[in-house]
Amino acid sequence: MKKRLLLIYSIIPLFLGYFVAANLTKNSQHTSSEATSFVQRNIIANDKLMLSINGSIFSVSQKNETKLISSQNEIDPVFINGSIITVLRNTNYSSIQKFESNGVYQNTLLSGDADSIDSMDWFTDPSVNRTNSRIAYVSDKDKSQTGIPDNALYVLNPSTGKSTQIENPYPYSGGIANPTWNPDKNNSNDILYDYYEYDPNTLQPYSVLHLYSNQTGLVTTLTTEKQNAFQASFSPDGKQIVFLGRNDDSTLVNLYLANYSNGQLQNARIISKGDFAYPTFSSNPSFIYMLESTGNQSYDLYSSQIKGNSLINLNQITQNAMLDGNSFFDVSF
Amino acid sequence: MHKHTASRHLSSRIMQICICFILAVVSFLLGYGIYYATKVEQFVSVSTNQQVQVTPSVATLPNQQNILLLGSDNDQKFTGNPLTQTMLVVHIDYQKKEVDMFSIPRDLWVKMPGSDTYAKIDQASEYQGIPSAVRVVEDTFGIPIDHYGWVGLYGFIKSIDAVGGVNLDITHPILDNSYPTDINNPNPYGYQRLDIEPGLQHLNGEQALQYVRSRHEDLLGDFGRTERQRQLLNSLKQTIFSSPASIFDIPSIFDALKGQIKTNVTPTLGLQLGYFYIANRNTLIQKEFALLPPKYSKDGTSTDGQSIVIADPGATADLVGSIFGNDAAKTTFKSLSSESDIETQ
How many CB atoms lie within 10 A of CB A274? Predict the structure, then answer.
């Protein structure tokens, strides 16, 4: 009897403890095998979101959740006139592709493929203007510069297939990223984007927001070196901008809200600080979406309300989505 | 009487249950501990096989330690002792509660240990492996190295994956048209293109390696790469010590690193360092230093045509003195003098 008790209360827990430790270790090796789920109630009413999860494209709203494109390499999805534009990413190049609203492939708008590795191109960060008639993107396709390559800004007319170069950093400055169009119908051909530079004294990289005005053909710098701004987004009426700014002493970034008028930023103020990426306005300008990470977990999509100069109610929309810079999402206004 | 016996029987029963419960809990914890101990034991047995003797830390002040971190491109096409392309001294002052990281440029032109010849500092390890790398740092900067840790490419990837990846702010876009395809590739002599987008990202081991290894298209060259390596180390440190739950990662990290690293940091010291960091993480002073141009160094060319980095002896001595103490700095830079045949740019 006593021997049986000893077995039950010592040997079995001993093995159990060993097994639990081994199992916890196994589980702690974080993998992306957990399925992604959506908390649809946290999506703002009337919004339709599109995002890339592990290379597949999903469309999600308060009522529906659809996997539109099953793939491993489709990223950066954006809406265009009911259809979808994505970036197909390969090891050495990328292409911009068009799909029907149900996810059926239509055609390749820009292909970075070539016979030799030196001739291949990156095409990334597509953004569609208000009238769905132009697509801004960044690419290293201009090989005329020698030395260090970087991404220049282009605008594609999808009807003619012709691209126009808007700004090409030269000599090397660090490159361009994240173009976005002004949705305001009076300034709908203005493009806002990140421009990376190096401080000539410290040689440290920083970024500023550049605005290209189609009316004047001029480029204006909207932010300061100290703000170290990047990843900007217009409100649906084009009167406000949210953007991120890096801190020198922290991995957390500042979330800025600013008024926008006549090509100038006014009253840029910090409304929150966190491990954020890609703040984007909802169709309701009181709300924004952004990627956020807690601890060292990978990024998930959240919605949040702007109240005065603060951000309140951070609500999680995706769970275990493992989102990152390649999962850039789009909101249909 | 009957009632009294029943009560005594009940007490005895409760006592028996308590003892069984305690026994079960202790056994459970013991089993748990045995698993961890096994993992640590396996790890230590591998590491100590590759241990080398470092110079006794004669000049080390009480409560201070210097740990040399080394990284090598020991890719598929490599044979022999690898170069140490990453060299970083972590100086820990337990009294001041300060941790300083001092990055050494791989192309720094220095006198090789036990020889009159000059070469890039990352080539010292080609002679006798890690002992030479340790000695060249000690001789060049006049500082004692108490402990070292070396990691190769595969170990780097595995260690990042073991902690579930790292969150990093990519501070500028990185385009690299000639990144080597020498990891798990049938053609280790080939190249691929990289396009790393700026902004906050969660990187797995292979992506993190690409971020810290790419240097061909960085305006700051190797200094830019060193900066990215320091950034990753900081992120990794935060990842490991960010939550109590990360203790569960320790056995898997040991598993991942088995045979992939060489170190004389014992598990006991590792735990002490971890405890020191966690206990002081809110007040810990953390500084980073590098021999950045133009103040501390300049580019040059050796007589055999190599692109090299030449340190400014005075400015570097001041910097090293401020990090490691002035006594160390006095013995510094015999190796960095202008005795060698170099041209500056």
Answer: 18
